[in-house]
Amino acid sequence: MSRSLRNESFGTNPLPQKLPIAPTAASRPTPRFRGRASTPPATETDGIANGFALAFGSSDATDTRSELGARFDRVLAVYQNAVLALRGRVAWAHDWVSDPTLTPLFQTLPGASFIVNGATLAQNSALGSVGGELRFANGIMLLAKFDGEFASHSSTYGGTGTLRYRW
């Protein structure tokens, strides 16, 4: 089971209106990989009695994440009947992971256990997001967005595109 809660706050723009920047801060105190996770105990049944059935004890782990960054937005009139909104976000994220391991043991071999390590999260990563929204007066809207998380040994990124018509 996994639970998660995210707290996010935005500041006001302390700079002139030509630089639309808003500072942001967020935290996510949660269990096992982006939150609190609990792994219940589990026991396998050995159907052929060869002694290789495993047993796992229960496990709890937490991943607390903090983010510090800024959001940018700018709205431009591009045509007489169209508006372009540009948005972006950059941030630094830090993860504190308590214990990404499990220790299974063989049921018929007391004391014979081994450790299974989960994938190690990068402690520090850069977050980025950029997008645009073009709205026409006739109700058509075009949206595009790119999001990414970049760290020393991993990268996650994705994009979306939307065509919307509102009547």
As an assembly, this protein is single chain
Mean pLDDT across every amino acid position: 77
Which of globular, elongated, flat, extended, rod-shaped describes the shape?
Answer: elongated
User: Which range best describes the helical content: under 10%, 10-25%, 25-40%, 40-55%, 55-70% or over 70%?
Assistant: under 10%
Strand content: over 45%
Runs with pLDDT <50, length 5+? 31-36
Annotation, overall tally of beta strands: 13
Radius of gyration: 24 Å
Task: Describe what you observe in this structure.
The strands form 3 sheets. Strands 1, 2, 3, 6, 7, 11, 12 and 13 form an 8-stranded antiparallel β-sheet that branches. Strands 4-5-9 form a 3-stranded antiparallel β-sheet, with no helix packed on it. About 0% of the residues lie in helices and about 65% in strands. The protein is elongated, with a radius of gyration of 24 Å. Residues about 30-35 have low confidence and may be disordered. The protein has about 170 residues and is mostly beta strands. The protein has no helices and 13 strands.
Give the SSE layout.
Layout: E1 2-3, E2 7-10, E3 21-39, E4 42-43, E5 54-56, E6 59-79, E7 82-97, E8 101-102, E9 104-106, E10 116-117, E11 124-136, E12 140-151, E13 155-165
Antiparallel strand pairs: 1-3, 2-3, 3-6, 4-5, 5-9, 6-7, 7-11, 8-10, 11-12, 12-13
Overview in brief:
Helix content is 0%, strand content 66%.
Question: Features of this protein?
Answer:
mainly beta, single chain, 167 residues, three-stranded antiparallel sheet
